[in-house]
Specification:
Elements lengths: L2 E7 L3 H12 L3 E8 L6 H14 L7 E3 L13 H4 L21 H11 L4 E5 L4 H9 L7 E7 L14 H5 L1 H8 L5 E4 L1 H4 L6 H8 L4 H11 L3 E3 L2 E2 L9 H8 L4 E10 L9 E3 L7 H4 L7 E9 L1 H11 L6
Parallel strand pairs: 1-2, 1-4, 2-3, 4-5, 5-6, 6-11
Antiparallel strand pairs: 7-8, 9-10, 9-11
């Protein structure tokens, strides 16, 4: 039986890879996709999402536009990471698909409450839409199996030394989601940065005969601009797609359930504080500890296994 899933995205390069995988995997039923500003502006994210659905030959899935900015902060561009178009300049033809006339929160509410079984909500972006949903319609929590989110870190950050981009972009939203009493699974930087396709494989796909392979190869080959005249070395990360892979192959990752909170002040703003201690600390002994959310956290990954799953699902293994 397939897992009913709703994707919440800010479609840049790695969200695109995640959408391609989710649509193609027979163990996943994509009910719809909601969009939020993050890697690119909201309008660009919506357009990118619709074009990616065309590229993978997806059925007529509902796509809705959501928040144009974080709950409190001004919008921030990630154009240096994903390119000005959010897709690293990978050319995808214009689309005839159109987004839903309702907004993301309304679409999420409808899809979740109308589904006969609990839904897995997959957040691959800043969690603004999810926070608005759970504050506006808290009853949806009753039909959520869990929230799988790409975000956070139990170690280092990337937006800052300690904060990962998706959580840092809207830390208040992430804190609201963690406090919503919905089971949560964190696919953070600890595993995100390890799952990659070899450069030779990506190059062969980009210059091969398969149309989808050319798109995937080009997305994998996109390099982050470090400055006006310098680019990052090839990484080949499948990025957000790894979070979706974890749904259908959970045994490829080692996880632990740990207390987590989101830091909301100071330089640590946006950091996911993860309690990895093996025993009670002084804060607990002396009654100084407050309540943290218990989250299942991916800490280690069989990167080769997850990469193989990604390529095989897209019909690109061995090409």
């Amino acid at each position: 039986m397939s897992v009913p899933v709703i994707l919440d995205v800010d479609t840049g390069v790695d969200d695109a890879l995640a959408i391609l995988f989710a649509v193609r995997h027979p163990g996943i039923e994509v009910l719809g996709i909601t969009c939020v500003a993050g890697n690119a502006s909201l309008a660009q994210v919506v357009d990118n999402t619709l074009r990616v659905l065309d590229a993978v030959g997806a059925p007529d899935l509902p796509v809705a536009a959501g928040a144009v900015r974080p709950l409190l902060e001004p919008p921030r561009s990630a154009g240096h990471v994903h390119g000005l178009d959010g897709l690293g300049g990978v050319p995808l033809p214009p689309t005839q698909r159109r987004p839903e006339p309702v907004g993301a929160v309304e679409l999420l509410r409808r899809l979740i409450l109308e589904h006969p079984t609990p839904v897995t909500l997959v957040a691959l972006a800043p969690q603004t839409n999810l926070a608005l949903l759970l504050r506006t319609y808290p009853e949806v929590a009753g039909n959520l199996e869990r929230i799988v989110f790409m975000g956070g870190s139990a170690s280092v950050g990337n937006a800052t030394a300690v904060a990962e981009f998706n959580v840092w972009h809207d830390p208040e939203a992430a804190a609201i989601v963690l406090d919503a009493n919905v089971p949560a699974y964190m696919y953070g930087l600890d595993v995100f940065n390890r799952v990659a396709v070899e450069q030779e494989v990506a190059a062969a796909l980009e210059h091969g005969d398969d149309p989808l392979g050319r798109v995937v190869g080009a997305l994998l080959g996109h390099r982050i601009a470090l400055s006006a005249d310098e680019q990052e070395e090839y990484t080949g990360l499948i990025g957000d797609a790894g979070a979706v892979c974890s749904i259908v192959d959970p045994l490829a990752l080692r996880t632990e359930v740990r207390p987590v909170r989101v830091e909301l002040a100071g330089y640590g703003r946006g950091q996911t504080l993860v309690d990895l201690r093996g025993r009670r600390g002084e804060d607990m002994v002396h009654g100084l500890a407050d309540e943290w959310a218990n989250v299942e956290i991916a800490l280690e990954v069989d990167a080769t296994r997850l990469t193989r799953l990604f390529l095989e699902t897209l019909g690109l293994a061995g090409r």
